[in-house]
Design brief:
The complex is a heterodimer. By secondary structure, chain A is mainly α. Chain A is built from 6 helices and no strands. Helices cover about 65% and strands about 0% of the residues of chain B. Chain B contains 16 helices and no strands. The chains are: A mainly alpha, B mainly alpha.
């Protein structure tokens, strides 16, 4: 990224957009390329998680009792709290996008930081849940030693549980890093009505993280 | 070149090598390793991919030498297992999947669209580093860990083997990222950076095939990534996801694995088909026959390819209905491929064909693709496949398509675009000789394997009964010929790189857009945004004009 120091502050109170890469003719074309690239990348993410969901349905089909028993041992209040956190953080990200698009960089900064805090809260609650599972021995595969799940297939449920939520948590961390990065750029007032693709793309990524959880939550905790 | 190919007027004086081009725009190592120029990145990939081809070829020769005699020949049984694992993994993930898209796609896609670069040059360079890092990790893992699972990593063997397979799996995962980045970059480039006049149906067919390839790369690779992650987690932590002893399901592995790995064969062969669509016009001096059909059948193959994976599971306890359905869907691929083949043959029909090395590769390609494709229809038939499952028949089938057709396309591309990439011509006689040896050697290697498989010789076995000996000797002899042809090509191309005759802008008299820029092209490709007034495959009934471009010379 070109350093913001070299770019001039415009009268409207935001920095000039960075110089257009030499192979694009207009800034709109560049922005739409960035946006399109992000949508494609999100497509790959969906397929990455699709594999996990296929695994979930396969094993749910094999071991319906174990999946039901195990789901009852997950904490619905904590899962719901996390769902609320992520949904709210998606809202603040969307608002940040709106503000950045209108050049209100400071507002966008605070909204993005609020999302980051909620993301951290999500990870904190997840850590509490994981700790509890470790103490109970409700663990994947050969580490499984949770006596309360009597039906066969308990270890497999926890493979699905830990692998899917673990992979998701990794995405939360990546998403938070992206949000912090664009938040810092908001602080430097880099975004304007002509240039805001980084906020939009990071926001899209965060929405995907949210979306995956919206599927994981009912499948793991509720059904 | 002695035979005059051109319909355009031959310039009076010999062409001059351009003083400034992408090749000498910065000569330090740093200027290459940190370049954002798609042409230089293509050459970086060329180096990586050729090293992979060399390694994979060496391991293939070791395998063939071992199979020269029925008993132990040069290596032990365990080493043999490691050799076919090395050969398969290197050839699939480090050579065939990246080969044509990352070298010729990177180099020519932007030029063919009239663009100065791909959509995301920085990511393009990143993808090369990711490819090199993943390859290094995979090779290191294979050599130090001694993985012997074959390239397919079938569970539960792969999840319980005592060899250290995790770095290999992570290497595949990382190479997958590079593949996704390349595909994503190409799709966005095609959508956003077409020059004025290059409408969707004026894009060169090579671009269409890259588009279809990229769609598969973007959509299928993540599933392989997840699968390798699951296998490595299972191997490391004993998860039991794919292990029936712990309630897991090894068939689930096969589904997830082939959901990527079947479409992956189209990642390999579609670009090769695209190359053939380009070069066949240049050697036949004719418009392409059935442009839209060829373009659409690429997308058709990409689409149908996603629903054919179950034909790898015919003998894995699949229900007869599923097996029949997957078999029927697989045959649709044959229809789309046949559309292409008929159109190519239609292009050759009544053309003013130039008999050169490129044409030889086209012939080889058509033979291997059709023969390999027909045997593909045969193995997609459930009742026949039960007989051929896991025999050399299957090995010969997929080598015909994945190696025969892909290598022919790769070499055709290398010879056709060599003058454009490096500005010099190669010696045609040597090239023709090597092409002949290549086609002969390839046929001699794999036709005996069809017979061996049909006679019941299983794949991946270290020893075999005496009665298979003669055909195995023939196969090894063919492989040696193949290796010899590769050595000839390596030598004359290396010499031509420095001492070859200066090629000039368009030595083939081709009508493809990329021949309108100097050879080698300048860093910026075009001085101004070009306006292409003709289609990319128009050889007849068009005025002898170049595109209206501000050229660097």
């Amino acid at each position: 990224m070109q350093s913001s120091a070299a770019r001039k502050m415009t009268a409207e109170g935001w920095l000039e957009p960075p110089p257009l890469p030499h192979h694009y003719d207009t800034i709109e074309n560049h922005q739409s390329a960035l946006r399109f690239g992000m949508w494609l990348f999100l497509g790959t993410e969906v397929l990455l998680f699709a594999g996990i969901f296929v695994g979930y349905f396969t094993f749910r089909h094999y071991f319906p009792e174990a999946f039901e028993q195990s789901a009852r041992h997950l904490s619905v209040p904590l899962g719901t709290a996390n769902t609320l956190l992520l949904l709210t953080s998606s809202l603040t990200v969307a608002l940040a996008h709106y503000n950045a698009e209108h050049g209100r960089n400071r507002n966008a900064f605070w909204l993005l930081m609020a999302s980051v805090v909620m993301g951290a809260g999500f990870l904190g609650i997840k850590a509490v849940e994981y700790t509890e599972k470790f103490h109970e021995g409700a663990l994947p595969g050969r580490f499984f030693s949770f006596a309360e799940i009597t039906a066969p297939g308990g270890p497999v449920f926890y493979v699905v549980y830990f692998f899917s939520t673990g992979l998701h948590a990794l995405h939360v961390v990546v998403g938070m890093s992206l949000l912090i990065w664009v938040a810092l750029r908001c602080w430097r007032k880099e975004f304007s009505p002509t240039y805001y693709a980084p906020v939009e793309n990071s926001g899209l990524y965060w929405h995907l993280v949210d979306l995956v959880w919206i599927f994981l939550y009912p499948l793991l905790y509720l059904v | 070149m002695t035979a005059p190919l051109t319909t355009t007027a031959v310039p009076p004086a010999g062409p001059i090598f351009p003083k400034k081009s992408y090749l000498n725009d910065g000569t330090t190592i740093r200027s290459w390793l940190l370049t954002h120029d798609h042409k230089r990145i293509a050459l970086l990939y060329l180096v990586g991919v050729l090293i992979s081809l060399f390694l994979g070829g060496v391991f293939a020769m070791v395998i063939r030498l071992e199979l020269l005699t029925p008993g132990p020949t040069i290596i032990e049984a365990l080493t043999y297992n490691r050799m076919f694992t090395l050969h398969g993994l290197i050839m699939v993930f480090m050579f065939m999947i990246p080969s044509i898209p990352t070298i010729f796609g990177n180099f020519f896609l932007p030029i063919m669209l009239g663009a100065k670069d791909v959509a995301f040059p920085r990511w393009n360079l990143t993808s090369w580093y990711v490819y090199m890092a993943g390859s290094a990790l995979m090779l290191w893992g294979l050599i130090t860990g001694g993985a012997d699972t074959g390239w397919t990593f079938y569970a539960p063997y792969s999840t319980t083997t005592t060899t250290n397979i995790t770095p290999v799996l992570l290497g595949v995962f990382i190479i997958g990222f590079s593949s996704i980045l390349t595909g994503l970059n190409f799709i966005v480039t095609i959508h956003t950076l077409r020059a004025p006049g290059v409408t969707w149906f004026k894009m060169p067919l090579f671009v269409w095939s890259l588009y279809a390839t990229s769609v598969i790369q973007v959509l299928a690779t993540p599933v392989l990534g997840l699968t390798t992650l699951l296998v490595s987690a299972e191997h490391t932590f004993g998860f039991g996801f794919f292990d029936p002893a712990r309630g897991g399901d090894p068939i689930l592995f096969q589904h997830l694995f082939w959901f990527y790995s079947h479409p992956a064969v189209y990642i390999m062969v579609l670009p090769s088909m695209g190359v053939i669509s380009e070069v066949i016009c240049a050697v036949a001096r004719k418009n392409i026959f059935g442009y839209k059909m060829i373009a659409m059948s690429s997308l058709g193959i990409a689409f149908v390819g996603f629903f054919a994976w179950g034909h790898h599971l015919f003998t894995s306890g699949q229900s007869p209905f599923d097996a029949g359905a997957f078999g029927a869907i697989s045959m649709l691929v044959g229809i789309f491929t046949a559309i292409k083949v008929f159109n190519w043959v239609g292009t050759l029909y009544k053309g003013a064909i130039v008999f050169n090395a490129i044409f030889a590769y086209i012939c080889g390609f058509l033979f291997f693709l059709v023969f390999g494709g027909m045997t593909g229809i045969a193995v997609a038939t459930v009742s026949l496949d039960v007989h051929w499952q896991d025999t050399y028949f299957v090995v010969a089938h997929f080598h015909f398509v994945m190696v025969g057709a892909v290598i022919m396309g790769f070499l055709a591309a290398l010879h056709y675009w060599f003058p454009k990439m490096f500005g010099r011509k190669y010696p045609e006689n040597w090239a023709l000789l090597a092409a002949g040896l290549m086609i002969l050697g390839f046929s001699a290697t794999f036709i005996p394997q069809f017979l061996l498989g049909n006679a019941g010789m299983p794949r991946r076995y270290y020893e075999y009964p005496e009665r298979f000996a003669a055909l195995n000797v023939a196969s090894t002899a063919g492989a040696s010929l193949l290796a010899f042809a590769f050595i000839i090509i390596a030598i004359y191309l290396a010499i031509a790189l420095k001492y070859g005759e200066v090629a000039g802008r368009n030595p083939w008299g081709s009508r493809g857009y990329e021949w309108d820029v100097p050879s080698p092209p300048p860093t910026e490709n075009f001085d101004a945004v070009p306006v292409f007034t003709r289609g990319p495959h128009e050889y007849q009934d068009v005025p002898e004009d170049l595109a209206k471009v501000g050229h660097a010379i």
